[in-house]
Amino acid sequence: MTRKNMWSLLVMVLLGVGISWYSLRNVNLSNMMTDIAQLNWWWLLVALGCVGLYFGLEAVVVQKFVRHRYKHYSFRSALRVPLAEQLFNGITPFSSGGQPAQIFVMAQSGIDAGRASSVALMKFVVFQAMVVLNFLFAMLIGFHYLAAKLSYLSLYVFFGFLIHFAVIVGLLLVMYWYNFTKRAVKVVLIPVGWFMKAERFQRLQANISEKIDSFYEESVRMTKDWRMLLEVCLVTFFQLLFYYMVPYFIMRAMGYSGINLIMVTSLNVLIFLVTSLFPIPGGAGGAEFGFTELFAKFIPSHSKLILAMLIWRILTYYLGLFLGMIAMTMKPEKAEEIQPDESTEH
């Protein structure tokens, strides 16, 4: 990690401490300590297991995309990819650092940078598609609750959905309407050129054009393998499902047993969309706000609600930062590219 990244990480940790302190300002600490002592640690282990499965299943997706071109690409190497992604998503605005981090980690394992870029992009396409699919299910189940109880959040959820939907539409345009997309991007970039030097603007155009070409070529190749694509979609769907179920198991750990698993899971999908609207790394502030607002009806005790929110953030955000730092220090294992004659033998 660069010094700039280390400073970003430190700022996010301090910001998290500040938000936690602010959340605890009206909480009786003796009540909080009692709530901690009464936690069911078995249910917390289940919640932790869901987070582990979230990372593990993403590593499986990376392996599936890479295995057709490289051999000896271990699960350990693949696991470094989502952990590095989690770290750099968590310390950069709009999660902009996750993609470069994935490419860097795959390149460390001997994956060609162009191939690594294509894998990261295809993984992103599938992830966005499954986010939209999960959102549609969540809308059917939980939006009536959101509209009735917390109507002011409905607008945030709607805009969050529009962002994810626009991203997936843009990527699908590249895949299936390549020439139109290339022309459209040139038109969209014209106003950008008004505020940049000509040489820098040309480099930006060339870079975007190269990424579009790379993504199109890789998407054409991968979409021919429908079985693999279906497997990746299925694995990603369950990856997200385990992530969305984490709040339910935290509530079980706090002694709430009469909770609807499907409703809680659906509401967490909506939190995910609200968080994506906040440009601050990790959705800091937005994630905590969304959690406490949506789950206040399920956890009537204020101290337990704040404790549940803190545990949720530790498991779904800060744990990823910590594991990501460990992953970046691990020595990469080298994969070997499959030669054309080897691939025909298989």
From TrEMBL:
Bilayer-spanning residue ranges: 41-62, 124-147, 153-178, 228-246, 258-284, 305-327
Protein topology in the membrane: Multi-pass membrane protein
Pfam family, one: LPG_synthase_TM
Key words of the record: Antibiotic resistance, Cell membrane, Lipid metabolism, Membrane, Transferase, Transmembrane, Transmembrane helix
Class of the enzyme per the UniProt entry, highest EC level: transferase
Subcellular location: Cell membrane
InterPro entries referenced in this protein's UniProt entry, alphabetically: L-PG_synthase/AglD
Domain of life of the organism encoding this protein: Bacteria
Reactions the enzyme catalyzes: L-lysyl-tRNA(Lys) + a 1,2-diacyl-sn-glycero-3-phospho-(1'-sn-glycerol) = a 1,2-diacyl-sn-glycero-3-phospho-1'-(3'-O-L-lysyl)-sn-glycerol + tRNA(Lys)
EC id: 2.3.2.3
PANTHER family registered for this protein in UniProt: INTEGRAL MEMBRANE PROTEIN, PHOSPHATIDYLGLYCEROL LYSYLTRANSFERASE
Function: Catalyzes the transfer of a lysyl group from L-lysyl-tRNA(Lys) to membrane-bound phosphatidylglycerol (PG), which produces lysylphosphatidylglycerol (LPG), a major component of the bacterial membrane with a positive net charge. LPG synthesis contributes to bacterial virulence as it is involved in the resistance mechanism against cationic antimicrobial peptides (CAMP) produces by the host's immune system (defensins, cathelicidins) and by the competing microorganisms.
Family the entry assigns: Belongs to the LPG synthase family.
Entry protein name: Phosphatidylglycerol lysyltransferase
UniProt organism field: Lactiplantibacillus nangangensis
Organism ancestry: Bacteria, Bacillati, Bacillota, Bacilli, Lactobacillales
